[in-house]
Structures are given as C-alpha cells and as structure tokens.
Amino acid sequence: MALLQRLLVALLRVLVAGEHAAGDAMPSPASGGGGAAVNVEARYARVFCFGNSLTDTGNNPLLPATAGGPSTSPPYGMTFFHRPTGRSSDGRLLIDFIVKALRAPQPTPYLAGKTAADLLAGTNFAVGGATALEPAVLARMGIVSAVPVSLSNETRWFQDALQLLASSINARRRIAETSLFFFGEIGVNDYFLALASNHTVEQAAATLVPDIVGVIRSAVIDAIVAGARTVVVTGMIPLGCEPQLLALFPAGSAADYDPDTGCDARFNKLAEVHNRELTRMLRQLRRAFPAAAVHYADFYRPVTAIIASPAKYGFGDTPLAACCGGGGNPYNFDFAAFCTLRASTLCADPSKYVSWDGIHYTEAVNKFVARSMLRRALIPMPKPNPSLSMPLSSSREHTGQETSRELATL
C-alpha cells in the first residue's frame, strides 16, 4: 500500500464513523465504496504546515498587520472550541482533522512559539491573508496585498525554525524525515486580489497561474532538500462557488453559471487551470525526486459535490450562502455586513452550511473534505523507496464493528 494510502486510512479511522450524512460520499474507486478492512497508521513525529487562512490555526492574530481581525471575535470558534482561536471558521480546519487522525501533536502557530520545544512538536507557518507570490511581485502587476506574508516568507520561517531546532545538518535532516509536510491551499488570495484589481479571469490564468505554481514548486523542493520524505500539496478550491466572488462579481449572462451548482463557471475555470498545472508540476517532482512521496490532495471536487447535491451529504438547501454575514443578497455576503460586524446575522446551524463567512468553510465542510481526501486521490501515488519509508506502527486487522467502537470513543 502506498504511503499516502496509509495516511488516508489512518485519517479515515478517525473521521468515518459518527459523522453526519456525508457518510457515503466519495467512494474509493479501488474499494467500490466498501470500508477498508486493514488499517495501517503512518506515524509522524510532527507536522509542518504552510498556507493561508484555510490552514492558519493562530498566526493571524499575532501578526501586527492582521491582529484584531474577525477570527479573534465571536462567533468564530463557536462550534468546537466555543471561543475564537484565530481559525477562520466556526470550528476546526482541515489540518486539525489531519493532525488528530495521525495522533501527532497539534502544531504550534509559528508566531506563538516561545521555545524550541514548542516548534519541535510541529509548527504551523500558515497565515490568514498570505499570498503565494511575494507582495512586491504582486505590486508589479498592479495588485496590492495588505498582508506582508507570502509562501516564500513561510518557507524562510521554516528554515529559521530548523536552524533553531538542531545545530547539525544530520539532526536537521532527521527532523524533516520524521515529519509530514502539509501545504494547504495557497494562491486563492492572489486570485481574489487580482480580480479586485480589475484583472480578468483570462489575465489571471495567463499571468498568475504559472508564477503561483512555480512558487509552490520551489517551496516543495525546499522541503525535500531539507529532508522531507512525505509532502502533501492541496489544490485550489472552487473559486466560482465562493459567496464573496458570487456577490461581488455577478456574471453578465445566465450562461456563465453552472446549471448544476449555481457556481460561476468563469471562476471555476480559473481554479481548474490552477489544479491542472499544479498536478502536472507534482508529477514532474515525483520523477525528479523518486525517494520522496509527493501527494496531491483534492479540495475542489469534494466542495462542488456538496454544492451540487447538498441534501445527499447532510447539508441545507442554500449551499452558496454564508452562514455568518449579511447584505440581503442570495449569498448573504457584503463586506459592510461581514461576520462579526453589527449588520451581520448568524445562521441557526453552521453544520448545514458550506461557507462560514462567505470566504472560509464551516467545520462540517472541513471534516467532509478531510474524509474525501482519505477515500480518493486525484493522482495514483507511487510507492516510496522502502529503505526511506517512515516508521509505521504495528498493523492489525479491524472489522467494521471494531472501527466503529474505536471511533465512538473519540
């Protein structure tokens, strides 16, 4: 079994049982929809995370440029933590489910790390509002970013943290070798900012996609050179299903909207171009670095599946509306009534909604996406070099009843 499959099965053990009606979603082509009988857990000493607000678990409130933002005020965090934690959701993010399933320590937000021990247990370098491209590069395209953090900044933070954690090259490599590197979705803010700066979808696809994918490529290579053996790279979300874009950039023709989802096909096309180029690049990296396991994690298809058939997966009948927001439009989104502002309102049950605040997802969706990443991978994953495989816990067979009993205790 390929290493990603082991990782995915481990996650599946935590997330499959006891969830809402998304239980039958996204059956594995290999299993024909049946559950896995053998569960093998990949063990990682820690997780290093990179990305933006879809992955940030607490850096945003600590960065001067973003401190005091919406994620620091109620009702953010209401579902699971019952308080704001700096996460841009009503509860947990995708990375929270991954870390829990791997039984790895919760990564410390980089800006909250006080000691080397904090960072050694795992570090989250993601920052809400971060872009893939550096602000100076965006500025040359006429695009202004208010958050002075890019993926390059985050990878430099990782190098600084690694230097702090170990003095020798061998020790630093061992840290990287025993870690999972998770690159959450990155690039969505570049596209948001470009569209807000009057760039067309065609311009964004032609000028931004190659540069964004190139920056992700460099970041993944940096991780592999540092010693990473397992890297997971998340694809782009369906941009055309974002309440923010639907409310701010209405299409000129009804033909621009997908009849099955109501999403804007123009923006989804941009996301599809991004994902196509990203997966092509990752294939190239697998050939260039055969000793490393480089995996693609699909964010696009699970979300569009919910939006096309929300009732099938336990969601409500307004999958394109924000749970927390306002504005009087079908998408419940207006910056003047953004979540936490006086003019905003809150839905009765966030678990029935796809979008939390018009930009970010609810905990229910993050959970669903984590499960779908377990059951299927867009690209078949090669087996890593056995001599470089991560240490695994002892495996044993589980029946469905045994798995259900284990999950019921979580």
From TrEMBL:
The gene that this protein is the product of is LOC127753104
CDD domains in the record, alphabetically? SGNH_plant_lipase_like
Pfam name, any one: Lipase_GDSL
InterPro entries per record? GDSL (IPR001087), SGNH_hydro_sf (IPR036514), SGNH_plant_lipase-like (IPR035669)
Similarity-based family: Belongs to the 'GDSL' lipolytic enzyme family.
Q: Which domain of life is it from?
A: Eukaryota
Q: Composition bias, kind Basic and acidic residues: at what positions? A: 395-410
Which range is the signal sequence, renumbered to this chain?
1-18
The protein depicted here goes by the name Esterase
Residue ranges, annotated region (Disordered): 385-410
Which UniProt keywords are present, listed alphabetically? Answer: Glycoprotein, Hydrolase, Signal
Gene Ontology terms for molecular function:
hydrolase activity, acting on ester bonds
